[in-house]
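Mods, move this if it's the wrong board.
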Amino acid sequence: MKSFDIGRVMSATFAVIARHPVVFLGLSLIVAGLPYGLMQFLALNPDQLSGPIVDLLFADVEDYWLAFMVSGISVFITYFILAVLLQAMLIVATIRDMRGQDVDIGLCFAEAMKRFLSLIGLAILSLLGIILGLILFIVPGVILMLMWMVAVPAMVVENLSITDSLKRSAELASG
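Not the wrong board. Structure tokens:
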């Protein structure tokens, strides 16, 4: 078994991206970049667009802060879901490239959507565990974060359940 070599990992990463820049950079821009840019624009210019939207959606709400909180939570949930979807699509694209298969944005999206609910469940469960570990004491949260760092790739590549993905990630990260 080969030992971990960060140079080999970085070299392979940049090689995959260089072979399919449109897929990797395009997916990142479409799925994460544009929504994040819109979110930042609305945060920095609340009167231009977000103010009228909040007025329209929450015209009957007396507490304006409640309306902004609901809007913020909605944006966070949307961004969280898009980030999970992007991660899965990039993993699918990377694995397909490493196996010598065709890499296509539509195919990556279809493969990621097959496991969408499981991926969301995995993200929520691992996030809650890490937050709990950080609240108890910072070190357990950091340890869980490191242990579960490859849970999503394990789920996508090995087609595992949520708990099996967390266990497999811990096995891969041990030592």
